[in-house]
Amino acid sequence: MIAAPRFPVEAALAALHGRIFAMLSADELEVLAFYRQQGRKFGVDAHIDSAADPVELERARSEAQADEVMRRANSTVSVTRRHR
Fold it and tell me: What are the tens digits of pLDDT across the range 52-78?
């Protein structure tokens, strides 16, 4: 029996690049959350490019609140790989 990978596969990550943050499925959000938190270990920079009001983002008291602000602003996901 083949063991499941301990981290999301690269194809799932690459599929996120350029997508609108508010339109991601629950599975895609899970992949994004994993690489936002642990991507550095894998040479990956996954973040959300946002045109949201910086003042409103600064007022957010948690990452979840900041994510909601970015969802309303039609922010996009950006994924880049660092060379090893």
Answer: 999 999 999 999 999 999 999 989 999
DSSP codes, 39-69:
GGGGTEEEEEE--S-HHHHHH-SSHHHHHHH
Is residue 77 within 8 A of residue 19, CB to CB? The reply is yes
Helix (H, G, I), strand (E, B) or coil at 79: strand
pTM, 2 dp:
0.80
Rg, the chain, Cα only? 14
Q: Which residues contact 41 (CB under 8 A, 6 or more apart)?
A: none
CA proximity to 52, closest of 73, 66, 68, 71: 73
